[in-house]
Amino acid sequence: MKRQIVTQTKSGLFVRDDSTMGLLVFSPYTGNIFACNSADKTDVIRWLNKQTKTISSATYEKALGPEWAISIKESEYPANHLLPNPESYDNPCPSYPIVINWLLTGACALQCKYCYAEDLMRGKCKEPSKEDVLKIAQAVLSFSPLAVVLTGGDPLLSPHLETVMAVLYGKTGLIIDTSGFTFNETHLNIFKKYGVFVRVSLDSEIPQVNDLYRVPLQGEKQRANMSSGYAAFNTLCQCLDAGLGVGIQSVAADKSRQHLAAFGDKLFKMRVRSWRILMVAKSASNAEHYKKIVNEEGLERFEDTIKSNLRKKHTNGWNKGMSVQMTHNRAPNSVILVSPEGIFLTEKKHGNGKVVIDARNHKKPRLSEIFSQQIAAHEHAERYLNGET
Amino acid sequence: MAVLEVPNKRRAIESTSFIRTVYRSLLQQGRTYASFDPTIVGQLVDNLASRKIILDPMAGYGGLITLCARHKDPVSAYCIEYNPPSYLWQILTNPSNSSKLLSFIDHIYKSKKRWPSAPVRASMSNDLFPAESLEILMKLFSLINKTAKKVCSDDKEQIELSLAFLLPFVGRFATYAPGTIVHVKKGGICVYVDWHDDFEIYLVALKNLLIKSQAQVFNTKHKIVYGDCKTIKLSEKFPAMITSPPYPNQIDYYSIFAPENAFLSFLEEERIVKGLALKERLIGNPCVSVKEGAKKYTPDDVTSKTAKSFLNFVANYNGTKRQLSDIDTYYLPSLSKYFYEIETAYANITRCLDRNFEGYIIVVNNSFRKRIIPVAETIVDIWKNLGFEAEIVPEFTRELSHAGGINPSVKGLTARHMEYTIRVYRK
Q1: How far apart are CA B412 and CA B224, in angstroms?
Q2: Is the pLDDT of residue A288 over 80?
Q3: Interatomic CA distance for residues A63 and A61, integer angstroms
Q4: Which of A194, A325, A389, B311 is the 20 to 30 Å CA partner of B400?
Q5: How far apart are CA A105 and CA A349, in angstroms?
């Protein structure tokens, strides 16, 4: 298969011409990924490269244009990110990964009760050296991901954060996932320099509720009494005030999900650009707390009423300024992970641990292994293009 | 700057204005949770209008004033209310204040450049108000209070009108997670972005409400008194009454207005206002914890035989260990307290009813463990014990459905409540 190339257009958005999905686009201003129908590919690229001033469809302009062609206030995000509409796609499956999640470090200042990555953290994987991260970066880039999510642990604790960003800059979209617990001005300057989209983890607007699940690591004496909720909120405000593209990631746990609609109103008003609501992913690391965190009886109510209320609120107002994505866990193997050691992994099909994508080439898997053996390709597309809705 | 324009077609107030749900309902519909139903109460006002003045000792949001104001015959409402935000809402919507308030709204709108700015984009807190919110509210209150001086005749009126004007917007600056309309969970984020726009939305909605109600008013002389119906001493004697007590459904009416009551308490601590920070619980509030210093009420505190019989059913309920524990620590004391307080309130009120008195009491029977809580029958009992005649009026009896409300899946007895209208009068 001919290798696909990711290009950063003059607008700042990243594009990749996917042979099966049409044109994939990532906006570092909004953190959103969209697919554009093949028939419109040429026009969209010309518009994104500012060779034309307008694009024929208002749907494209309002979803892809914020911050460079139109103001954020004029944005409008459809629930489903297949443009101009999902009906013009037939079983969308990408031929290359859309997003790769790189766990830059296993270090983290929090020990969240639902964390699915504990099996890769806190010394269970060897921390990479500078030479290691440069090699891993090349391996990641070889798959032409439209965006790379720097995560962990908490990537802010990696001594190689800026090195990695410098290598990836301009070659792929950059998203950073962080709790904000150790966030400082140095990080802010790095984010500004490399045009990073910042995704802050905050489960609830009520600090007491947020802190129930997102607990500082034991032994962190200086920070033991700090609130993860306040830290995340301060990070969010500082990034917004600095003009960065900011999104929020919330895990819908038992005590936090009942107030999500009100929380969403606040995020919308603050001008957060995107909001991802994640379900707790069952894994070996969170098995001890899983039942209590999830509360399956309440989960049913969430699925029946709260989710539908959130979709309604998105359609009736939030969509003008904030995209909302609700992920499910029906296909845990839709996510591509890279461990701190550079091993490419995914979650096992039925949860409960991770599996190496290509046992023969664990640090640079064969593409055929990625999408035909281990990764649920359709669900991979659904996850990043908000296909469930 | 021109006066505040009110669009011809009313737009719904969005949740992202952060004007609290209870006030959005009041501003847009003139009523909210536990308000009078004007179709029933309108007929009762018709029946009593010839008596010229009608008392409501538990007046809530002042539904009686609205109905008396719109009546074609001269009739006044005399309303007593103990929950400060409800009392202040009555002040705000009292027809005799409408012209004053309409002019007041335009003055406030014209001073838009002096509306305070927020120092930050947003604040997060585990309490009801972060420091930044209180700072903005104090500046806004000061501006409103200075403006009120232009339209008010005395200090008391100035303070009350200023508070009444500001209070529906106070929740905009609170940090809370709205659950249902009757439940407020402390803590959350307050967003200051675009608050000026939201204040304008509030002013437009209020102006709309006042213009609409002004158009339908015939009678403007009504009295609104802040007081506790269980203890208030009145010199007047009343020939008529229409009222509705709180329901025994464990709703704390004070907590419905938690942010507003917290703000009033703050103003009292700062010595800016006096006498509007409620220091005790309202009738029907569910707080019975002995740890909090509350007296533990029992069936012995209640006089009515009907109520006692029901409370004995509760006390002897044959349930699980957990159910029995809940009954002992919570349900029996709270239901006993409810009936005790209703008896005390009516005994006090009957002291100011004249020889030819006639009145109506509208009640809803809830249920407990699949048994009807006999509120209507108990009230009939209470008034008869007080020396009055009392009877349920069948033509106003109706079944109300609770399905689709707070709990969409309720069925059976819990889904249906009977509403009764009781006529009480001197023999």
Answers
A1: 40
A2: no
A3: 6
A4: B311
A5: 24
Cα separation, B279 vs B84, whole angstroms: 11
Is the Cβ pair A265, B188 closer than 8 Å? Answer: no
Query: Do strands A274-278 and A246-251 pair parallel, antiparallel, or not at all (unpaired)?
Result: parallel
- Is the preceding omega at residue A84 within 30 degrees of 0, hence cis? yes
Low-confidence ranges of chain B (pLDDT < 50): 403-406
Look at A263 and A73; give whichever has higher pLDDT.
A263
pLDDT of residue B404: 44
Residues A35, A38: Cα–Cα separation, whole Å: 9
- Write out the DSSP string of B124-192: EESSS--HHHHHHHHHHHHHHHHHHTTT-SSHHHHHHHHHHHHHHHHGGG--EEE-STT-EEE-EEEE-
CB-facing half-sphere around the CA of A368: CA atoms within 13 A = 2
What pLDDT does residue A19 have?
Answer: 82
Q: Following DSSP, what letter does each residue of B389-412 receive, concatenated?
A: EEEE-GGG-EEEE-TTSSSTT--G
pLDDT digits (tens, 9 = 90+) for A290-313: 777 888 777 777 777 888 889 999
pLDDT, average across residues A167-194: 97
Question: In chain A, whose CA is at the least distance from the CA of B187?
Answer: A206
Q: Using an 8 Å Cβ cutoff, are A381 and A93 in contact?
A: yes
Provide mean pLDDT across the span A23-38.
96
Cα Rg for chain A, rounded, in angstroms?
Answer: 19
Q: Measure in Å the smallest separation between the Cα of B263 and chain A Cα atoms.
A: 20
Query: Looking at the DSSP assignment, which residues form a beta bridge with residue A249?
Result: A201, A276
- Copy the structure tokens of residue B272: 């800016």
Distance from C-alpha of B217 to C-alpha of B213, rounded to nearest angstrom: 7
Cβ-Cβ pairs closer than 8 A, A with B, add up to 65
* A48-82 confidence digits (pLDDT tens): 999 999 998 999 999 999 999 999 989 999 999 99
Nearest alpha-carbon partner for A168 in A6, A384, A32: A6
Q: Which of B123, B124, B125 to mutate to test the interface with A (most CBs of A within 10 A)?
A: B124
| ipTM here | 0.93
